[in-house]
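Please review the protein record below. Let me know how this chain folds according to its tokens.
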Amino acid sequence: HPLMDEQSSVVLFSGHAARRGFVGESMGGASCGAVESVVRTLAVELAPIRLNAICPGSSWTPLFEQFFGSQAQQVAETFGSSLPLQRLADPCGACDLPECGSQGGH
């Protein structure tokens, strides 16, 4: 692409709804599935520019609180305890993931 050099990288965010159906998540699933499809196609079209989609996992957001209502804290603790970090993701922390990945970090 004329505006990007070969060392460029593009990172888009996706979500678990792309791979698993949830009640009330049809639009979220469709949009996340579209992101992952676009990344696969653009990776071929724009090679050698790197393209990736990342899925930071369940995050504590206003939408999470709205969805679970008064049970949000309990759901977050129960579900979070099953995750490697022992908690839900912080949406602000997820913003650092692309930078980490673009620097070759893990």
